[in-house]
Amino acid sequence: MNDEEAAKREAENGFRQLEEGTEVIRYYLEPGRPFALRPGLILQLQKIAVQGIQSNPGEWRRTPVRIEGSAHQPPPAHLVEGLVTEMCEYVNDNLHVQTAFHLAAYVMWRHNWIHPFADGNGRTSRVLSYIVLSIVTGYVLPGVPTIPEQIQKDRKAYFAALEDADEAWRNGEQLNLDVMEELLMNMLAKQLLSVISSASGKELT
Length: 205
Hints:
The chain is an all-alpha fold.
């Protein structure tokens, strides 16, 4: 597969991954279906992201990885599964304690911090974060472009927010997700604004 074919497949997988995420949101918003974040969902989403691109989709990485352009060194491969489980437990334990923005920001940062896969980490973290945001908020969030689509189009602010959280963690400040939470708030505002623009027939910014 050449670069052009790989880019096309990645884009197609991205649409499928977001569609799968929307179905997950709809499922858990049905009455009598309490949500709990599980590693199996994360594996499922990553498998869709890299289907036909990576040889072992839907599997935790088995080797060390580096994040290009980042000072963060992801943890060793043998710790990945346990760290992902801890991430899920944090979300589940705080579903009714923390805000939807905090939990979505946490998932987006922590998943990237762990970097549990050989490929597809960023795409999977963004859809996973969007699922958490939507379910905890209680809505299939309307409007376009969605938060994952906005980040895919321009990742500069997203990378900056990840680096800010990484730096705070390295410096012993524990969780400091303020920049990531603000980014998600602004992006959701843009997504929802498109609904108002459509309803009013006016282009709003």
